[in-house]
Amino acid sequence: MSENKLTITAICGSLREGSFNRRVLKAMEELAPKHWEIYHADLSMIPLFNSDIESQGDPQSVAEFKENIRQADGVLIVTPEYNMGIPGVLKNALDWASRPSKSSVLIEKPFAIAGATPGGGGDNSVTSPGEADIASYECLHDAGSEGSHRQRSRQTE
Ligand SMILES: Cc1cc2nc3c(=O)[nH]c(=O)nc-3n(C[C@H](O)[C@H](O)[C@H](O)COP(=O)(O)O)c2cc1C
């Protein structure tokens, strides 16, 4: 019996080419059930949020990012923590996606978050307070709270 396709927007919070978090995301993709279709968002193309730019219409990279999330069944974020919070590039992308606030593509969107770091702290703030950062978009319905997708990963060199 074939299972229904599940579309996931995958977001890596690191732009670094050799990113551990990107490697974790790729490993997750390899392990994901075959009926998952994963789209990798490219945060490097998303400009810094500026409501002057927004008022002229979303740049193409932002429009594509938002449309992909809109069509996805869920969002999977794998990110380092930077100074005990989520990296600026990730926050910037989510800020774009949070607009317009009343019809944001993030509203009620299930999400899961994981983080990898070579440090001893284990990305704690990404997977706990950082999760709250993301949930504070008032939008993202935490799939983990339903006991399903919350992940915590650590990778060392
Ligand atoms: C600006 C900056 C801040 C960081 N802050 C933290 C931190 O708060 N906690 C932590 O565990 N690691 C921190 N790190 C280390 C990162 O977890 C580590 O560099 C990690 O490899 C980055 O992820 P990536 O490999 O996916 O690029 C920080 C790194 C940078 C560059």
TrEMBL record:
Residues 7-124 form the NADPH-dependent FMN reductase-like domain. It comes from the Bacteria. Pfam families: FMN_red (PF03358). SUPFAM superfamilies: Flavoproteins. Residues 139-157 have a biased composition (Basic and acidic residues). Residues 116-157 are annotated as: Disordered. Gene3D superfamilies: 3.40.50.360. Belongs to the azoreductase type 2 family. This is NADPH-dependent FMN reductase-like domain-containing protein. It comes from Paenibacillus auburnensis. The lineage of its organism: Bacteria, Bacillati, Bacillota, Bacilli, Bacillales.
